[in-house]
């Protein structure tokens, strides 16, 4: 019998009305694929349902593939022909699937013998619902009429399957544990946050996961008030020692980060209530659990966001006390051998956990970028995953994470562990055998300077190890973000002075406080902004809060005395903003003169060029500034109107976009014509394939993370200026992204 597409459309329309009469959801979906396969005379028909939260497709019904595949095959959005059809919201019809660039082989489901493949997205307007696919062993079996019919079917099924997807979401948590990936491995693919490899036991610090604080299972029956007093004293000593150690190692950001723990311990209402309950006959462990959970309830219910933030502190403190009370399996507060899993972390949480020897961090994807920057400075790997993927980590005893690739292996095999061990040995050997040279030159002898981006004082040691020629960007916001209040002028001065002193006469560029957007202060008055990236951030915040701005300026000016320091203003959009900021600097200088305080009278003032308006006005700005630094991260975001943290558009965030390259060329050209110093400090500076372009348009100063310097020095040494200039000219003539990518691929 031949294909009967028209009849099929009618039958499936009738089938939709029978949904309520079916014995279950799977029965309905199975009836649908059987009907489609019958009328299209196709060997295989399958339905995949899309989950928007995890951005994955799950096989929910099939006629023709192995029945065991149902519920056990999962594809990422864009993976395979079905995944690509849904991602791009278009039908894909291929005559020979194995020859398609989108083909993705899935072992064990019996599809390798089917060549013809037709996939049609099931959608409601722009909302992704699922994919309807048909397959057949005969190559080129499906034609345009089949595609048209399948699109009509998909449209009729959309409402029913969307509702089905909502129903399945209720059961998703229990099902997720048994899901196999399309590769059959226990691999979770996330997104890179901070480079590095770590192995350990997964420890949840997410409130919803860890829930209430609980008594340890192996708690001795005969514990006394004396045991509690001993645990209390031990906890105080441990926390005081941690506070002392972090104050030495991370003095810029670690001021009193354990003060909440210590204050709670010292609170008589907290410890006194536990004592009274023990005296009244309660077991010390039960009394501790009861009081900690009472505080958790109070803090969680508080309208004050600062109190809500202390819930994790309470749980951490409760765990420390319990370890000291009953004797746990590890040292109290020691996260050695543990990888932290969290849906929400404050910068101070990251700092505390890193101080307590956490091996790495797996966090929910919505985390802000400064969390990743802190992890990089602390040399802790971090991977960002989607919320739904957290279910995969329940009950897991062993994790291996690769922060560079953004991957996490659950229960890694011996083969995977051996491969990563070999990789780590090679990386260590390479780092030891090929140290940084003190100066960088192109293949034909042009001098290029490589500076360090500094986030925390702990980065200074790395900057020296990698022989940085100075600090090209000090992000001054981190002491503000991590602390619970604004650091005073004196506290800032001590931090900035250490940076200047560590660099000697090497150049140090301080960037003024850049908060707003994704960098928020927990103690700042909350202001709801519909779009914080286009709101009160950077220089706008500083000019609105001049008392904060002038305190920082005075601290930077004073710290620069006897050194070689500069001050740079972020997010400048107009000449007026720079002039107003410069006038405040002159006002601060006058004030310091009046106080008889030494400062750097030769402090140069510059701007971050990171807005399209600054590129347009670069000629006018060049008359006013002493130097410019191109911040390509925000320049790309604002020029292309792309939020790189938004997965739906992140692939449009392209450093090699023709508009970005022409903007860089314009800024460099104008700066050099006015004999103004110009540098690059965005992520493009760490991209080896973009080095020829940057050098070719005239960049001679690069600023990047210390750990990336060696690779970039090698890239600089591998290129001649003649070839770099030629490559840059060619790239500036290209107008299409595809042409640019082809050029970069072949050079």
From TrEMBL:
Gene3D superfamilies: 3.30.450.40, Phosphoenolpyruvate-binding domains, Phosphohistidine domain, PtsI, HPr-binding domain. It is found in: Cytoplasm. GO terms for cellular component: cytoplasm. It holds the Pfam family GAF_2. GO terms for molecular function: kinase activity; metal ion binding; phosphoenolpyruvate-protein phosphotransferase activity. GO terms for biological process: phosphoenolpyruvate-dependent sugar phosphotransferase system. The keyword Kinase applies. PROSITE patterns: PEP_ENZYMES_2. This is phosphoenolpyruvate--protein phosphotransferase. Signal peptide: none annotated. The lineage of its organism: Bacteria, Pseudomonadati, Kiritimatiellota, Tichowtungiia, Tichowtungiales. Belongs to the PEP-utilizing enzyme family. Its cofactor is Mg(2+). It catalyses: L-histidyl-[protein] + phosphoenolpyruvate = N(pros)-phospho-L-histidyl-[protein] + pyruvate. Keywords: Cytoplasm, Kinase, Magnesium, Metal-binding, Phosphotransferase system, Pyruvate, Sugar transport, Transferase, Transport. Residues 24-171 form the GAF domain. It comes from Tichowtungia aerotolerans. The keyword Transferase applies. InterPro entries: GAF (IPR003018), GAF-like_dom_sf (IPR029016), PEP-util_enz_mobile_dom (IPR008279), PEP-utilizing_PTS_enzyme (IPR050499), PEP_util_C (IPR000121), PEP_util_CS (IPR023151), Phosphohistidine_dom_sf (IPR036637), PTS_EI-like (IPR006318). It comes from the Bacteria. Its EC number is 2.7.3.9.
């Amino acid at each position: 019998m031949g294909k009967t597409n028209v009849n099929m459309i009618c039958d499936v329309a009738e089938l939709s009305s029978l949904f309520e009469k079916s014995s279950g959801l799977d029965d309905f979906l199975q009836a649908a694929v059987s009907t489609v396969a019958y009328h299209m005379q196709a060997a295989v028909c399958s339905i995949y349902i899309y989950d928007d939260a995890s951005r994955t497709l799950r096989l929910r019904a099939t006629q023709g593939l192995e029945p065991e595949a149902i519920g056990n095959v999962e594809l990422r959005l864009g993976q395979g022909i079905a995944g690509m059809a849904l991602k791009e919201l278009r039908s894909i019809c291929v005559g020979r699937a194995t020859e398609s660039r989108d083909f993705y082989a899935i072992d064990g489901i019996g599809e390798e013998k089917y060549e013809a493949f037709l996939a049609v997205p099931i959608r409601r307007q722009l909302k992704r619902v699922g994919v309807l696919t048909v397959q057949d062993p005969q190559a080129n079996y499906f034609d345009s009429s089949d595609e048209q019919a399948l699109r009509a079917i998909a449209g009729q099924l959309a409402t029913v399957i969307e509702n089905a997807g909502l129903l399945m979401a209720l059961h998703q948590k229990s099902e997720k544990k048994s899901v196999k990936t399309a590769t059959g491995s226990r691999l979770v693919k996330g997104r890179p946050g901070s480079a590095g490899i770590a192995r350990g036991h997964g420890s949840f610090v997410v409130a919803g996961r860890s829930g209430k604080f609980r008594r340890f299972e192996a708690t001795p029956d005969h514990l006394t008030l004396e045991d509690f007093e001993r645990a209390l004293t031990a906890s105080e000593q441990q926390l005081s020692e941690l506070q002392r150690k972090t104050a030495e190692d991370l003095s810029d950001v670690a001021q009193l980060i354990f003060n909440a723990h210590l204050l709670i311990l010292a609170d008589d209402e907290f410890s006194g209530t536990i004592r009274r309950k023990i005296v009244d006959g309660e077991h010390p462990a039960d009394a501790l659990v009861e009081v900690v959970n009472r505080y958790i309830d109070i803090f969680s219910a508080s309208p004050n966001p600062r109190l809500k933030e202390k819930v994790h502190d309470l749980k951490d403190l409760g765990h420390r006390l319990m370890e000291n009370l009953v004797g746990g399996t590890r040292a109290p507060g020691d996260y050695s051998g543990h990888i932290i899993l969290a849906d929400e972390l404050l910068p101070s949480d990251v700092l505390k956990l890193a101080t307590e020897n956490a091996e790495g961090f797996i966090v929910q994807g919505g985390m802000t970028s400064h969390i990743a920057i802190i992890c990089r400075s602390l040399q802790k790997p971090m991977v960002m995953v989607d919320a739904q993927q957290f279910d995969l980590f329940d009950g897991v005893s062993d994790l291996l994470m690769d922060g560079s690739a953004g991957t996490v292996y659950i229960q890694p095999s011996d083969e995977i562990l051996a491969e990563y061990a070999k990789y780590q040995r090679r990386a260590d050997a390479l780092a030891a055998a090929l140290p940084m040279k003190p100066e960088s030159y192109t293949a034909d002898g042009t001098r290029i300077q490589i500076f360090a981006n500094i986030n925390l004082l702990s980065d200074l040691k790395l900057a020296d190890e990698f022989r940085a020629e100075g600090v090209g960007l000090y992000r001054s916001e981190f002491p503000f973000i991590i602390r619970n209040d604004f650091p005073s002028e004196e506290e800032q001065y001590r931090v900035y002075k250490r940076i200047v002193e560590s660099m000697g006469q090497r150049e140090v560029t301080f960037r003024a406080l850049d908060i707003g957007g994704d960098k928020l202060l927990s103690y700042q008055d909350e202001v709801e902004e519909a779009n914080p990236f286009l709101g009160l951030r950077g220089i706008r915040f500083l000019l609105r809060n001049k008392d904060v701005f002038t305190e920082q300026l005075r601290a930077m000016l004073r710290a620069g005395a006897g050194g070689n320091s500069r001050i740079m203003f972020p997010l400048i959009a107009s000449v007026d903003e720079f002039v107003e900021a410069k006038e405040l600097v002159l006002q601060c200088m006058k004030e310091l003169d009046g106080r008889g305080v030494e400062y750097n009278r030769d402090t140069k003032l510059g701007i971050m060029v990171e807005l399209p308006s600054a590129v347009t006005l670069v000629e006018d700005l060049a008359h006013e500034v002493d130097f410019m630094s191109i911040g390509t991260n925000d320049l790309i975001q604002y020029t292309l109107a792309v939020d790189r943290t938004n997965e739906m558009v992140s692939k449009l965030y392209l450093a090699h976009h023709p508009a970005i390259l022409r903007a860089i060329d314009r800024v460099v050209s104008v700066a050099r014509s006015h004999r103004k110093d110009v540098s690059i400090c965005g992520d493009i500076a760490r991209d080896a394939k973009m080095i020829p372009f940057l050098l070719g348009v005239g960049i001679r100063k690069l600023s990047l993370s210390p750990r990336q310097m060696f690779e970039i020095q090698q890239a600089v040494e591998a290129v001649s200026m003649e070839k770099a200039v030629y490559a840059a000219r060619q790239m500036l003539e290209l107008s299409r992204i595809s042409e640019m990518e082809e050029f970069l691929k072949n050079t």
